[in-house]
Amino acid sequence: MQLVESFTPQAEEYSFEQVSILEASGAVLIPAGPDAVPAAPDNAAMTDLELWKNLSAVKAGRVCPIVSGASSPGTAIPLADRTDTVLTTLAGA
What's the CA gap between 51 and 17, in Å, rounded? Predict the structure, then answer.
């Protein structure tokens, strides 16, 4: 098996102090709770920060919780449904 040298990681981790990197974002997607609508409680460590609360997307109400992952039909279908809802919401905002 040959490894692909141009592999790009799908995610990169940042510290909470670097949350301002999201300032240029028009909207922010965050992991959702089990029903795919409210933000997951694990997000509180970030969403309680003043740096987070001062982001333009947060102030504009353009934070959208989405279910994480699509490793099975059990998560892929809610992810597709929620993504459609998020895009419709953002288009009207």
Answer: 8
